[in-house]
Amino acid sequence: MTHKVFVTRQIPEAGLAKIRAATDCQVWPERMPPSTESLIQGAKGCDGILTLLSDRIDADFLEAVGPQLKVISNFAVGYNNIDVHETTRRGIVVGNTPDVLTDATADIAVTLMLAAARCIKKGIENVSQQQWLTWEPMEFIGQDLRGKTLGIVGMGRIGQATARRCHFGWGMQILYTARSGKPQAESEMAASHVSLDQLLAESDFISVHTDLNPGTTHMFSTSAFQAMKPNCVFVNTSRGGVVDEDALYEALTSGSIFAAGLDVSDPEPLAGNSKLRDLPNCVIVPHIGSGTTSSRNAMAEIAADNLLAGLSGNPLRHQVEA
Ligand code: DGY
């Protein structure tokens, strides 16, 4: 029997070709995501769906698409867009795409650290607005990375890859918070497992790699930013919801931190009226952490394999647990 599948966006052929060959599949053809109604329409009666992080999969959606659905394959490592308690309750398996985007995302975290620390946004604007009038000894003064302290919030695969780059590249001292200690990171790069309060107070750079859940939502609020050093560079490549953006704006404009680099926002895209957009000390890129050819191809392959495994009742390559 051929399984019916809905793929909610064009993804690399590395995965799509496998899905086309094995299923009766519809692919959402547009650049913008399907609306809730179109998502339901596309998924109704399907055995499997391949989703993106912008597709909200909740109880109402699952109720509307009917009992046929057996597998949801998310084209992302993060899966906060899916109510996994609800899928588990209904016996639907959920897959994700870890590991293959670790290095690409850590590279973007470091890119943002450097860009924010070295006033790159201000420099680019200076040139593009034809304001580069002379060499200015007192302008574009940033922060060094060499020998500084980096606080990693969420020391999973991407947090550790970011720490490794900074420790071995610039001799940075690594502090981290995590649910459990990471002995490997402690022996490899002398990382110290500390409380969030200590990390906020002592870090010159803070890079966030935690997942988004009720406990981490807006964990970076006014009090967290006030606890940071005034030279601190704050970077978020995880999920926008961990940051209270009004509090970040206040911290960046009052001088309570030096600069920020964001790959993610809440909502995404960044709200049209977000005051962060125009700040010279806030570098924002449009959620491109995993955006390399090899990462996206590998994500597509894993997502396809997860989908096909779930359809035939086999274990997924990477299955998410509630
Ligand atoms: C993920 O995979 O969760 C990233 O945010 C996008 O690649």
Structure, described:
It is a single chain. With 322 residues, the chain is α/β, with parallel strands linked by helices. The protein has 2 domains: 4-100 and 293-312, 3-Layer(aba) Sandwich (Rossmann fold), CATH 3.40.50.720; 102-284, 3-Layer(aba) Sandwich (Rossmann fold), CATH 3.40.50. It has helices at residues 13-22, 36-43, 59-65, 84-89, 102-117, 120-128, 157-170, 183-189, 196-202, 222-226, 245-254, 293-311; strands spanning 4-7, 24-27, 48-51, 71-74, 93-95, 149-153, 173-177, 192-193, 205-208, 233-236, 259-262, 282-284. The strands form 2 sheets. A 7-stranded parallel sheet has the order 8-7-6-9-10-11-12, sandwiched between helices. Strands 2-1-3-4-5 form a 5-stranded parallel sheet. The two termini are 30 Å apart. The model has no long low-confidence stretch (mean pLDDT 98). The structure holds (2R)-2,3-dihydroxypropanoic acid. (2R)-2,3-dihydroxypropanoic acid binds next to loops.
How would the blueprint of this fold be written?
Layout: E1 4-7, H1 13-22, E2 24-27, H2 36-43, E3 48-51, H3 59-65, E4 71-74, H4 84-89, E5 93-95, H5 102-117, H6 120-128, E6 149-153, H7 157-170, E7 173-177, H8 183-189, E8 192-193, H9 196-202, E9 205-208, H10 222-226, E10 233-236, H11 245-254, E11 259-262, E12 282-284, H12 293-311
Parallel strand pairs: 1-2, 1-3, 3-4, 4-5, 6-7, 6-9, 7-8, 9-10, 10-11, 11-12
Helix pairs in contact: 1-12, 2-3, 5-7
The protein binds (2R)-2,3-dihydroxypropanoic acid.
Could you provide a short overview of the structure?
The chain is an alpha/beta fold and 322 residues long. It has helices at residues 13-22, 36-43, 59-65, 84-89, 102-117, 120-128, 157-170, 183-189, 196-202, 222-226, 245-254, 293-311, and strands spanning 4-7, 24-27, 48-51, 71-74, 93-95, 149-153, 173-177, 192-193, 205-208, 233-236, 259-262, 282-284. 37% of the residues lie in helices and 14% in strands.
